[in-house]
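thought: fold this chain, then report.
action: predict
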Amino acid sequence: MEARVHFSDDYNQSQMIGLGIFFIILPCVAVVLRIWAKLLGPRGIVSDDILLFFGLAFAISCGIVQLIAAIAGQLGQHQSQTAEGEPQLADPRFAIYQKVIRCCPSDRMLEVLTNGGFTKSSFLLFYMSIFTTKRFRICAQIVLAITVAWTISYFFSNLFTCYPISPYIEPFYNNNCVDGIALWYSMAISDVIVDLFIIVLPIPAVLKLQLPLHQRIGVLSIFMMGAA
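observation:
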């Protein structure tokens, strides 16, 4: 029997608009709070903060893409169909949805750049500015190299989901495309693995600090919440 993957479609246009707005506001608040805290300290704005600004720009772009797809396209709505039950490919809203939600060829590329390329790298550079031992820096540089490689590989994997490059990946277009679900799973799983590397990385260094146990646990909690 053929295995099938089912994704729940229990969402609507209003929810997609609300999520788009929420994920524009949330990173803006987080970055503003971080920059405010940095300005209160002696270091000021440094390279890891600059990377975070780029990540914020792409995060806002992801939210805008979702808003356009939900308002002008068909994100969160049932696709219009012909009398025969086939997709109504001539519907201009469907064309907008396809082109916007899969721009370049998808907003997953923006997500890769935001979460992988800039945000993760920003945290790693921040770690290296705090923990300066040779062993820690080597470990952090290895994780940074993995992060950069992950970002580049999945950026181009999403770009070339179809060849020639096309935003239309559904089977009924008969384009030469890879399995989008398998690509999504591999990207999501590897993303979590890289996140775990980043979360675990500072634990040994923090546990060696000459602080009471409850303070070390507090410092670890802050790092983990930030990296998560």
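thought: worth noting. The radius of gyration is 21 Å.
final: tokens above.
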